Amino acid sequence: MNSEDIKNLLRNGEHIFLECKKAENTIPKSLWESYSAFANTYGGTILLGIGEISSETDNSKRFIITGVSEPNKLYKDLWNTINSNEKVSINLLRNEDVQTIDIENKKVIAINVPRADYTVRPVYINNNIIRGTFKRNHEGDYHCTEQEIKMMLRDANESGNDKLFLEFYSMDDIDIPTLEKYRIMFKTNNPEHIWNDLGNKDFLIQLGGYTINRKENKEGLTMAGLLMFGKGLPIRERFDNLRMDYIDKSNLIGEQRYSDRLTYDGTWENNLFNFIRLVLPRITKDLPRPFNMEGVVRIDDSPQHKAVREAVTNMIIHADMMLNGILRIEKYNDKFVLTNPGLLKLPIEQIYAGGESKSRNQRIQNMLRMIGYGENLGSGFPLILNAWNERHWLKPELIEQQDLMQVKLILSINTKDVTLGVTKDVTLGVTKDIISRRNTIMELIQNNSEITICELSKKINVTERTIKRDLSVLQKSGFIIREGGRKEGKWIIAKNK
Description:
Blueprint: H1 3-11, E1 18-21, H2 30-40, E2 44-48, E3 50-52, H3 59-62, E4 63-65, H4 71-82, E5 98-103, E6 106-113, E7 134-137, E8 140-143, H5 146-155, H6 176-189, H7 200-207, E9 210-213, E10 218-221, H8 223-229, H9 232-238, E11 242-248, E12 260-262, H10 272-284, E13 292-294, E14 297-299, H11 303-317, E15 325-331, E16 335-341, H12 348-353, H13 362-369, H14 380-390, E17 397-401, E18 406-412, H15 415-418, H16 432-447, H17 453-460, H18 464-476, E19 480-483, E20 490-493
Parallel strand pairs: 1-2, 11-15
Antiparallel strand pairs: 2-6, 3-4, 5-6, 7-8, 9-10, 11-12, 13-14, 15-16, 16-18, 17-18, 19-20
């Protein structure tokens, strides 16, 4: 830093990254509160030798450069105190983080406090973790709540949160139909895996969803096992602080508040696997789908579909399930908004860059990865960024809301793009069964361009009249072309679609 850097900082006034102290002769006691607050939030700069006229609203007049009279003494006091382990829980400062700047013939000391790694948070003072833990909010330092402190302590555990043993919760609390659906997907993705032959309990043990404590002769579900595969009632009993909610606010008519919603209404077992399984088709159904064929199999899983799956997976694996909050997914005409309780363990810029992942729910992360949800370590968010960039959509926006103790991801989409280049049945208000049948017709045509209406009718098990109607729609939509006569002609897939 130089004198011009200091002046630039002061022009913007105190804020979440800057704190000014007069500190003419001694280190003020309030410096340590700011040290804790910056370390527990985003990091920041403390300037010693800057006075403040609190009644002045103009930043150019509000701050006065008073300087410190004995910078060497303050240096010594600072380092002696911070290294004593009596004032602060940990010293985060290096020599280069503290410097003296000459400005207007006066000495100002700048202390750059880094954001503490999640493994050493909370950073607290006076050997009092409850009363000595602070956070930065706007231009002030505030005591952290007990809930915030507990969250930081949980985050410091490298093994994650979801290994927690839930005493008195057993296999009786598992929803077997949910687990069976998961096992089908697991076997599809891992056909030769030895876990496929295990019983449900042993299968859950291998996944980390069930644990046996031999020392205490106890066994039961883990947090991961209950949340992923549990029955709705036991989950709500144990985690009454947490809710799951999907709401579709797209294509509203008149005073309609939403067009679709998935919440706790007794129609489904409210576990994480069911939530993901039911929500993903809803949120992705209108995204652009390419028409690519590998033999007779249609490959229509676009990068944007993968990105949305990754976003939903990230929302789950990074959520702090012990906080009061909602796992919420909102769909709008021009964006998706995903919200989860808990703050970011890593700095935002590091998440955007990728290369490192520190999930709170490592067992749930593994469960989802085993069925194809979730990218390799640290590559998930760059995948989302690349998929959105490919469509030239607005850059995904990751927002940490400190006050609400939640993280929000906004995925903006170009609504015009959503209805172009896709199977046009999506825009005609038809059912998923009709869309699936017409896709099957196109796959059969791709494999046999001379296939007849009669043959299509027999293979798909619908009437010839239905086949004729579907062919007519596909022709009008530009997906297939008839070349030649009715008897001797053939069908052609429109490659440009």
